[in-house]
Amino acid sequence: MAGSRGESSHQRTASDPAIGPETPVLRISQLDALELDSNLEQLLWTQFTQCFQNCRPGVLTPVEPELKALLYLLLWRFTLYSSNATVGQSLLSLRYHDTYSSSPLYTPLSSRQKLGLAMLTLLPRWLQERSHHFLPCLGLGSRGAASESDDSLLRLGLRNSLILVSGLTKLASLFNFLVFLRNGRHPTLAERIAGALTVFSKPNVVRDVPYQYMNRELLWHGFAEFLIFLLPLINVRKLKAAALSCVFGNSSDKKGAKKGKDVWKECGLCGDWPTMPHTVGCQHVFCYYCITSHSIADANLTCPKCGAEAGAPESVKMSVQIVERVVVPPIRPRS
């Protein structure tokens, strides 16, 4: 009884034209599924590496490509191999259909197609990450039968071959993506070779975004644009100097009066001994390069110490008084 009920439900699903392979899937939905799968792989790798955070740094670096490949195979085993859909496709109510099948109804991928799709996706990544180790391993060393010139020619040939294969693969992927933008089928080259087509898994699936999320995004984008427009118009230094003068105004004046000439020993911007000291109209002194660079960056520059409006930088004129000292020789006793 249960078997007949399952067969009847399977027949209804296979004969439903609303979810058949002829129903087109939005291109953005297929790209979103790929992006969700990529984010899930990155999340798994991050969680896996956190297990070794107390070990010495770089403990996973020698075998990092192999570990990433192993995590991908585990993820493929419990998602695509078992349910005929990746995690991203499951979230968007999508799945794979066998394009090599002559049946007009939905046909799941075979085990060979799933394995081929996994290998076509996994092997290029692993080869790209391990390519810098291939030449030393495949090339003949100086102790081999070939000479050093033959060794260098072999390495050069292998390198050029790898570059040529990589370039052809990228060119084919680009051409496949342009074809995908044209007809909306097979966003990746691996899916086209394996014969995997993305179709809907549920009838009447509509890609809809609720208005509350749209309103929230519009609100935050508007607020961010308002801050980007407003912040450059605010003179933060002047406000900071005014607040400090209001809070510590009397104490700062007394402290400045007590210091006296100590103000001339410190740059108001960098805090070091002023190099080529200049002033902008107040009692504070600045380095020439500090005040010039800040004046170019901010046309309405104010003194960061007292908040006074900065004028044109002027060099500080200092008078040096030389006091002549008379040296009296010591008096020696007569012998």
What's the pLDDT, averaged over the residues?
76
What is the percent of helical residues? 55-70%
Largest sheet: 2 strands, antiparallel
Strands of the biggest beta sheet: in what spatial order? Answer: 1-2
Low-confidence runs of at least 5 consecutive residues: 1-18, 140-148, 250-259
Number of strands: 4
Order of helices and strands: HHHHHEHHHEHHEHE
**What is the straight-line distance between the termini?**
139 Å
Our estimate of the beta-strand percent is under 5%
Radius of gyration: 37 Å
Give the helix tally: 11
The gross shape turns out to be elongated
Backbone structural class: mainly alpha
Description:
It is built from eleven helices and four strands, in the order αααααβαααβααβαβ. Helices cover 56% and strands 4% of the residues. By secondary structure, the protein is mainly alpha-helical.
What attributes does this structure have?
335 residues, mainly alpha, 56% helix, two-stranded antiparallel ribbon, disordered N terminus
SSE diagram, text form:
Blueprint: H1 2-15, H2 27-50, H3 64-78, H4 80-83, H5 87-91, E1 94-98, H6 111-138, H7 148-183, H8 189-194, E2 196-200, H9 211-230, H10 236-259, E3 278-279, H11 288-297, E4 314-315
Antiparallel strand pairs: 1-2, 3-4
Short description, anyone?
The chain is mostly helical.
